[in-house]
Design a protein that fits this description.
Rossmann fold; alpha/beta; about 240 residues; single chain; about 40% helix
Length: about 240
């Protein structure tokens, strides 16, 4: 029974269902991120690398790919035993030959990269010309996986970086809105000031999760949209030229 509960909670973490509305403290941000990745998953095919794969939470979306390889850092804020990594990245070179992959997925990773230009050059190197990348990056989010959280990027900054490193922007948009951010951060605040004991913390947090998720979803639906504050930037990219 305990293992079933753990498995359910882990699934709700990245794939929030109706149940997640009541138990997932990251419901507002995660449901939008999941929707974005699922919506564009059909654009990735062939040989695919999931960079910053962690537990490979979105692998099921890419069953159309012939090959799915997960790459992650050797050191991050979460324990290595939780990951499902095929190959580790040393912070400099992704250990694959030039033009190796047809597709790249990278979700919520670039904020943990101090040498972002070097990494994007590596993405360019290992991706075939004409290959597609889906990259999501948080904008409004608290510090996490410390001390390996280095930056937040606006939409114009990301456009500049991608174009500079040999990619064409096929499509980009934001997830979330001002209202959703406010209510997500209300939940985050309560979570952060509660006792460290995980069981006690979650029990106390449950009513706040339900109330703030409900109000956040409702007001996001009925009030005018304002995207000057938002959760994530989602970019669909195509490699148009090799840089190195």
């Amino acid at each position: 029974m305990k293992q079933k509960i753990i498995t359910l909670i882990q699934k709700e973490k990245f794939h929030p269902s109706f149940l997640g509305f009541f138990i997932n403290h990251n419901f507002l941000i995660r449901k939008e991120l999941r929707k974005a990745i699922l919506k564009h998953s059909n654009l990735l095919s062939g040989s695919m690398i999931d960079f910053g794969c962690g537990t490979k939470p979105y692998k099921e979306f890419f069953s159309n790919c012939d090959e799915y390889i997960g790459v992650d850092y050797k050191i991050e804020g979460r324990e290595e035993k939780q990951k499902e990594v095929d190959v580790f990245y040393d912070g400099k070179t992704i250990p694959f030959e030039n033009n190796r992959f047809d597709s790249i997925l990278s979700t919520e990773v670039l904020e943990h990269v101090f040498n972002i230009d070097e990494l994007l050059l590596e993405f360019n190197r290992i991706l075939k010309t004409g290959g597609t990348a889906i990259i999501t990056t948080p904008f409004m989010w608290e510090e996490h996986e410390m001390p390996y959280d280095y930056a937040r990027y606006t939409t114009p900054a990301l456009k500049h970086l991608y174009l500079k490193n040999g990619f064409e922007i096929i499509h980009n948009y934001k997830t979330g809105n001002y209202i959703a951010v406010i209510y997500q951060f209300k939940i985050n605040y309560i979570k952060n000031i509660l006792p460290e004991n995980k069981i006690i913390k979650h029990i106390i947090l449950l009513p706040f999760i339900t109330i703030y998720n409900f109000v956040g979803v409702l007001l996001s639906f009925i009030l005018p949209k304002d995207e000057t504050a938002y959760f994530n930037n989602v970019f669909i990219l195509e490699k148009v030229k090799s840089i190195k």
